[in-house]
Fold:
Amino acid sequence: MKFAYYPGCSARSTCAELNVATHRVAQKLGLDLLQLESATCTGARELRAIDPAAFYALNVRILALAEREALPLMTICNTCTLNVLDAHAAFVTDADLAKGVNARLAEEGLHYSGRTKISHFLWVLHEDIGQDRLRKLVTNPLTGLTVAAFYGCHITRPPGRYGFVDSRNNIALETLAEILGCRPIDYTGRTECCGFHTAASDERVAIKLTGQHILAAKAGGAQAMVTPCPLCHTVLDGFQREIEDDLEQKLDMPVLHLPQLVGLALGLTPEELNIDRHMIPTDVVGAYAAGMA
Amino acid sequence: MAVTATILSPASRQGQIERADTLVQRNALLTPGDTITVRIKRSAGVGAEGREQEFAVPYQKWMRVLDALNWIAENDATDLAYRWFCGSKMCGTCAVRMNGREVLACWEAVEPQMTIEPLRNLPVVRDLVVDRSPYENKVASLEPWLRRPGDYAGFPEPLSHKQMKNASKALDCISCMCCYSACPVIRLGGLTDFAGPAPLVQLGQTALDPRNDPQRIAASLERTGIFNCVSCYKCEEVCPAGIPIVSQIIEPLKAKAAALVPAMAHHAFAVRAIVAARGRVDPGALVLRVQGWRALLRLRRIVRLLVRGKISPLRTVLAIKTAAAAPARRILGRGPS
Structure:
């Protein structure tokens, strides 16, 4: 099974461990990933607000790169996923926009006709690998590890894109966690916002919001959190010491990228998955993976 | 947590949940004669101690949350305070939180177990009644009315559907405050100067109207703190009028702000410039550009990031380009397209 693979900016910089883990897990799962090296940033939340025309061009270009290879596109970041989905939707519903974008892409010999299937790694696990096959591939179940799934926003909202009237109904991550041997917990933060998108200019919102989510996960008995989005990970893990300062209490909540949790259960070592590259030590997860917990 | 459902692809998932979540489907969970357990958070207002009171309500066919509240007020708690007027999704006065989610009482099917609370982010007057004045004062301060910069052109004014695409969505707002209650940034109180989704939708009705005076729009936008919106789509999720609040109101308003008051969009322009130059976002460069040398004061974090190899000062300082730099430059150029 082959995918055009779009890692996004975060997995190529502050969350480079996510890119490493994704490649390793893909190998284990039998996924052949063609990394789109010339793919640009999707524009995060900023470009779509201040320069919609450029936003559509950048994102449709990514879709066109995948279409040129006749491959479905796999993403690993929530915000990138929503951006390409939104651009695709606008492209197929607005003929003028499609024409304009293709004129811009023609300068480098690219063309999009609206055929690229967009999928996030989380959905690839459910739809392309399938729960039954995944269950068989689990050689090192993380039996007993309690995990709090943190979805973030852009993989489950807006309702018009994903179809959840109530995003709390999304159980894709919990289903997976169970297959990997973990015990998923229920808590209020599951589908809440980490505040990443205003954090570069003002961290206070992210620190306040995410502090509540980690506290709730901890109160629910979680030993670790798992997220399908590197932007959420940046706040949950990278800002956790500032969050602790704000709450005036230690949290020490390890936060894994989704491919890292899957990789451990498939028998990859913590080192191979770079889980030692996080700000908050992940020893407890490593102990479960080594069967020492 | 029970985990059973199959996860479908986004395309095939579209509409699936809606079809399973209609009034008819939800009512099918209950049959007339069943008893519904309704817990209502009651209080005498701001500062008063709240209490939860439980009621057993006999289910009647097609029962809505409002019907359950009416039954309680008529039979069990004649002093229950709640608001409603039209009962048909028009007046926007009956919004409450049911099982942790903002709903219009007149438009939501009952559930077998319901906890009903007043909306958040507004002071409680009594029981389920909230004081709307913080919202109303905010809206008034934004002066959301239309003033043409020139003379009235006479009827019919030259307006296309396309020009009014976003403003007309904003005009669907019934001011029910569901979005205001769901907003996590408003929930943080005065931490930011964010006006919140509902006031922005009200502003959008005229600020996204091409006839309005740009200078007035600029002055209004400067009072919104709009770039504090975290784009979580919580407001869109609960909007009973189905307004795409983030994509068709807040983002177009941000675009107006970027065009009319560029300083407000400093952060967004920084992202654009970095992507145009390097093809991808370099987090170090972004933080430096947005926060200036202040960013270096966060020494503890910088050391932590360096130790874990999460930032590369060399890449930031030397502005190393990625393989995506050339195509980004081709599309973004130097200025906004």
In short: Chain A has two domains: 2-120, 131-289.
